[in-house]
Amino acid sequence: MSDLRIGIVGVGAMGADHAERIVRRISGARLVAVSDPDTARAEELAVRLSGGGPAGGSAAAGAGAAGGAVRVIGDPLELVGAREVDAVILASPGFAHAEQLFACLEHGKPVLCEKPLTMDAASSLQVVEAEHKLGKPLIQVGFMRRFDPEYAALKQLLDSGELGRPLLLHNVHRNKANGPGFRSEMIVRDSMVHEVDVARWLFGSEISRITVHAPKPTGAVPDGVLDPQFAVFELANGAMADVEVFVNFQVGYEVRCEAVAERGSATIGLGSGVVTRAAGHWGGAVPEDFRVRFDLAYDIEVQRWIDAVGRGEIDGPSAWDGYAAAAVCEAGIASLNSGQPVAVDLADRRTVLG
Amino acid sequence: MSDLRIGIVGVGAMGADHAERIVRRISGARLVAVSDPDTARAEELAVRLSGGGPAGGSAAAGAGAAGGAVRVIGDPLELVGAREVDAVILASPGFAHAEQLFACLEHGKPVLCEKPLTMDAASSLQVVEAEHKLGKPLIQVGFMRRFDPEYAALKQLLDSGELGRPLLLHNVHRNKANGPGFRSEMIVRDSMVHEVDVARWLFGSEISRITVHAPKPTGAVPDGVLDPQFAVFELANGAMADVEVFVNFQVGYEVRCEAVAERGSATIGLGSGVVTRAAGHWGGAVPEDFRVRFDLAYDIEVQRWIDAVGRGEIDGPSAWDGYAAAAVCEAGIASLNSGQPVAVDLADRRTVLG
Amino acid sequence: MSDLRIGIVGVGAMGADHAERIVRRISGARLVAVSDPDTARAEELAVRLSGGGPAGGSAAAGAGAAGGAVRVIGDPLELVGAREVDAVILASPGFAHAEQLFACLEHGKPVLCEKPLTMDAASSLQVVEAEHKLGKPLIQVGFMRRFDPEYAALKQLLDSGELGRPLLLHNVHRNKANGPGFRSEMIVRDSMVHEVDVARWLFGSEISRITVHAPKPTGAVPDGVLDPQFAVFELANGAMADVEVFVNFQVGYEVRCEAVAERGSATIGLGSGVVTRAAGHWGGAVPEDFRVRFDLAYDIEVQRWIDAVGRGEIDGPSAWDGYAAAAVCEAGIASLNSGQPVAVDLADRRTVLG
Amino acid sequence: MSDLRIGIVGVGAMGADHAERIVRRISGARLVAVSDPDTARAEELAVRLSGGGPAGGSAAAGAGAAGGAVRVIGDPLELVGAREVDAVILASPGFAHAEQLFACLEHGKPVLCEKPLTMDAASSLQVVEAEHKLGKPLIQVGFMRRFDPEYAALKQLLDSGELGRPLLLHNVHRNKANGPGFRSEMIVRDSMVHEVDVARWLFGSEISRITVHAPKPTGAVPDGVLDPQFAVFELANGAMADVEVFVNFQVGYEVRCEAVAERGSATIGLGSGVVTRAAGHWGGAVPEDFRVRFDLAYDIEVQRWIDAVGRGEIDGPSAWDGYAAAAVCEAGIASLNSGQPVAVDLADRRTVLG
């Protein structure tokens, strides 16, 4: 049987996660190569996941670990072009994506590209057009929320029409604290971008206008940093979405979403798990970070991508979805800076894709 | 790389589930053989999961499916002894387990045995002793709840000592409706047995006495059938557990558990997921059956078993746990019939296992 | 307009609560007299609630306080017989109730008697018989849970038949810590007695047998004290109830109840109120004591009692309910001491009440 | 003792509710007069609540009902000026308030005025100035949410500073369906006005700018009606609030609110009560209308108003609060019509009130 042979570009936190995933929990795929500017990190990972040794030695993986030799390739473009690599996961920094995506297209390699597709709408559109010329979809973008069982159930419920036409979407997206070098636009580009994809996907419509408000910031950020932010999306089909992004919430990670339709509403992200009564309180833990909440979504996303590649398809957000998200985020950053609503500058889909 | 080659005995609902699991979602294992008295069903499954044809033809699985040829073997004991089978999953009816387990022990094959270990305490004890003679653990019993993330979190919380010593455990175990040929003792032997294992595991103590009460039954069962039942377990370490089992609850599947300790309580199984407001009500769906609730637990259980076999170990309930559960259920059925508390007749562990 | 003139016997915590209630929040009643062995406390209360001075001075209550002169009467029996007292609230210690109830009956004074009716089944039965001779109901017993909006809603739902016949009742009753001089039987007589009344009321049936188990106690109590306790009630109509009473739960006050019927279950006491996300947790506060949970129930109970007295009726638990509760608790204490199930010794209702 | 003698202007649904409240559940007040253009309705109410007959006959109220003769007065201004009326509740239509409020001020009668204070900011300001001239507060405005135990607890939590500075407030306000003659501005003026008061009160700041968005409306309303609406409030202190008002939600009445602060968030309005498992679902009932949710708030509001009048004070929203709400709603309606954010035109408080 031929497991799909995967190469991963970038083995920081996200890439390393994907590597572990492929080796330990995914069916039908093998990790064969990794690449990272930090060669030491790449080699450490390769050794750990080979169950024997890095490239060059044949390492028999112990039963239960779909490992084997994992080759460390210094040049990511060489990894993309390598014969032994059937498909690629891009977990490199956003600024490297454009070049690496074009390489994947050139070599006809299916690729799961962690968001963002590229750093800006213009280059994202170029990627879309380049893929379109090939005549088959090779790019899937890593908006993993679509694979979270709760988001999937919500989508299914809305599509069933049982609640009528969806009218509004209320979103809350909170992190415990930001990392170093945090800047206000990151809220839009790195966090809010998930709600952009969710809104487009749940409503089945493009976002035509966005307003990003910034209330007086929390005292937990340095002067000049705007956190939290509150955005309003106006969609082309008349629906609306609002999003609170609060990166320094101090409490933990929380992603919640309520869809309001003509005959009812549906909420996800309420959490649950173990409910404790202790020390004068009842309730549960708020997770530290996104992993607890979305680990399963990533597993499902990657498994389904691998299954789809086997069928010659993609099974998730397309390059167009990545481009549209970039276009909305550009407008969002403009709104954040101007304090005004900003129309989204998006190419006409039928013109681009036919 | 050597995937563990699995043979499955019994491809009814549970066995077929495991087969799908191995082929589509589990890392490091391959399905190589199935056996079932219903040959047609076994062959249909083998074809479906081979991605080509049954044994005899070489079938290349598409990428993403760890399939390959799946051989149908008429005689389960022949499957157990087959050279190409590294490890066995027993999903056959309980009455067949004893013979099949002895065969696994004889051939030194690691085996994941769906509960019950065997049909009665005496033969279960024989299996325990036989395995003990071999000097290494080969048998893991399929009490999957231990792998449910909520049960696992509860166990971790209790073990941490944060809430003090556990004192009581309240359990609720409900099904929508029973299948055909349902008899009152099945509630104890097939349903309550899960709470028996959970109580022993969470409290770290044997159950010394059990009372199974039967209130006036629901009108949904024929005369003479006792449903629901309400049991009280008294544990050797002084703790207690109570269990409501209601097989014809009419509503859906529900498994809930509250542990009460010296400084607090913790509850799991409260459900969540999508919370809807519609038609004058707020709330969510109660799942139809156990699959929604425990699919993930089975995936984790099987993945960890496979990983453990690779290390020459087990990683879950042992044959002793299967024997203890059988002993408690025998006492439970006696209590159900007599209306009295009944002491559990359990061999001394140190005597049996050294 | 003639407000009902109330006299309160016993102004400890409960009696003082009722006094405040009458003066500040109840419509159609006035507090005219109080009695307590602790004369200083009675006088302080009388002054505080008179809005001027105690008996002897004419005190005009300010608008908004249905006060007026509140007379302190040293002898509770004199208060019961006083002309200016239309109706009596007994909030004295249980051992004083029998004598004070007989006095109320003798003077034809309607009385709201805080539980217990009396200290034992025998004297309770005598009270029931004495009232029966009068030919009209004068005694209402203070099982306030029947007036809690959640219990009332539960009762209404079960009576509607929408869920079918009620089969089981799971109860949890927890306090933060016990007061001084705490003894094991108090759990049955003072705490569990509420669940006794609730079970009889919700199921509409007498309790025929009770088993009170005591697991190994929490380390928070001195040697010899049994806390928590876990009881099983078997009802005459075939239904069953179970009750965990845990007086030193350390966490706070919690009263929860789940009724299980043929086609569904209903739970109350889950709490709610403000749900906070802070310090890594989500959830709410567990109240310190019963007041937060049942303050409103007491208000409703007293208002409805006063309204009923105006109609010459009672509107809540009767003397028989008080007697039945005493009978069950006596059996419960016997079970706690013997470790065996104990049948409830209850007179035949039709014989006693005709 | 002198109960406060209350006259109610307007006995439609709200006024009749208040009448019942005074007679049956409020301490320290008596209903003495009602007025309504619908004389038949006023008389029916007067008879029902007199417990005997209307004005002219001496009606002894039964014990438990603080009734007595209730006089029907045709002219509301005559009621306001009547000697036997100590304080007034205005539950007349909004357009009648200005005249009736000036009458109350002229006669020095304390008045609880159901919202809106008046129909527009200008006349509201006149009322504020007129009251200010008198030198004592006579007017309390009926924004009852401040008295809802959950809103009160939320206020207390935010004021404690435990969660840090409040930054955002998310509000949801849904009704099942609108009444006849419904127009889009009613959403702002009659529904959203509650969130206006809540936001000002919880944040302790004026609202400086408002944007009212209207997504494509629900199909449940006639063409031209905009429902739901989604508003964004920008407060003077830098905080922000958002409000979804959806009058034809089809499901029932729901008012929910989440305050987000620097170190946590707090949510109210999640409901609870009886949680049922039946027919494949778990959950509870969504109330039909506002009464279930806010009946208690009204009781507390009126009781505290009456207590405060007795002290020569008010204890709730002032005339200024009514004026500020009117100013924000005027800006809100302008925004709804223009599609633009609109600054709130509010007089300077220190200038007006000194």
UniProtKB/TrEMBL annotation, chains A, B, C, D:
- InterPro entries with a match to the protein in the record: Gfo-Idh-MocA_inositol_DH, Gfo/Idh/MocA-like_OxRdtase_N, GFO_IDH_MocA-like_dom, MI/DCI_dehydrogenase, NAD(P)-bd_dom_sf
Identify the residues that the record assigns to the GFO/IDH/MocA-like oxidoreductase domain, covering every copy: 151-266
Q: From which organism does this entry originate?
A: Kribbella sandramycini
Identify the domain of life.
Bacteria
Q: What does this protein's UniProt record list under function?
A: Involved in the oxidation of myo-inositol (MI) to 2-keto-myo-inositol (2KMI or 2-inosose).
Q: Does the keyword Ubl conjugation apply?
A: no
Name used for this protein in its record: Inositol 2-dehydrogenase
Q: One biological-process term from Gene Ontology?
A: inositol catabolic process
Tell me how this protein assembles: Homotetramer.
Task: Identify the gene encoding this protein.
Answer: iolG
